Amino acid sequence: MIQLRNVEKFFQHGPTKTFVLRRINVDIKEGEFVSIMGPSGAGKSTLLHLIGMHDTAWTGEYHLLDYPIHALKKNDRDALYKKYFGFVFQSYHLLDSLTVYENLDIPLSYRNVKKSDRDAIVCDALDRFQMVGKKDLFPNQLSGGQQQLVGIARAMIASPKILLADEPTGNLHSSQAKQIMETFKQLNDAGTTIIQVTHSETNAAYGNRVIQIADGWIEP
Fold it and tell me: Domain residues of the chain, as ranges?
C-alpha cells in the first residue's frame, strides 16, 4: 500500500547538509497497524508527516497504492490526502474560529458527504467521545486533553483508509488513552491501516509491527 524507496530529507546550510532522514526504505501493507518508535529527535514525526504528504521537501520515491507521490503536483497530492488519510496531530491543529461540531464537520465536507448524513455522523462521533455537551464550544474553551479528543475524532470521522497518529495519547489520562487505543484497534480490525508515532510500549503493543528509527536511519 505504501512504499518508500531511498527517501531522504535534509536541510542545506551553505555547502553542508544536515540529514533528518537517511535512505529510508519502508513497505506498509494494507490493514497493518505499525508503530514508529525511537528517541526524541530521531526523525519519527518527520517520517510520519512525509507519509501524510504534509512535507514535500524530500528526495526519493514514494508510492501510495498505484500513485507515484514523488511525481505528483501539489493539488493531486492534496486530493489523495483528503481521500485516503486521517491525521491525529500532536499539537491538535484544530481551527480556533470553529466550534467542536464544525471542526468535526470539515473532513466530511471535503468528501462531499451530504449535509443530513454529515449531521448524523458528527452526532455519532460526539456521542462516542462523550463530547455532546461541548459541541458548541471553541477549542480555546477546552482543556488540552479535550482538544486532543476532538482532534482524534476529527481524524477518524470520515473513516479514512489510512490513519496517521503522532503521539495520539500524549495529552490524555490513562483511561482516555486506553479508550483511544482500543478504538484504534477496532478500526484496524475493520480494515483501517494505522501508522502511529509513539514513545509508549503499551500503545505499540496494540499494533502488529514496530519500525525503530534513530538519527534518521531505520534500524534493521
Answer: 2-94+161-218
- What is the number of other CB atoms lying within 10 angstroms of the CB of residue 84? 17
For the chain, how long is the longest CA-to-CA vector?
Answer: 57
Residue spans of the chain under pLDDT 50: none
What is the tens place of the pLDDT at every residue in 46-67?
999 999 999 889 999 999 998 9
Instruction: Name the residue type at position 94.
Output: L
Distance separating alpha carbons of residues 110 and 181, to the nearest angstrom: 26
- Pick among 3.30.565.10, 3.40.930.10, 3.20.20.70, 3.40.50.300: CATH of 2-94+161-218: 3.40.50.300
Q: For the whole model, what pTM was predicted?
A: 0.91
SS3 state of residue 193: strand
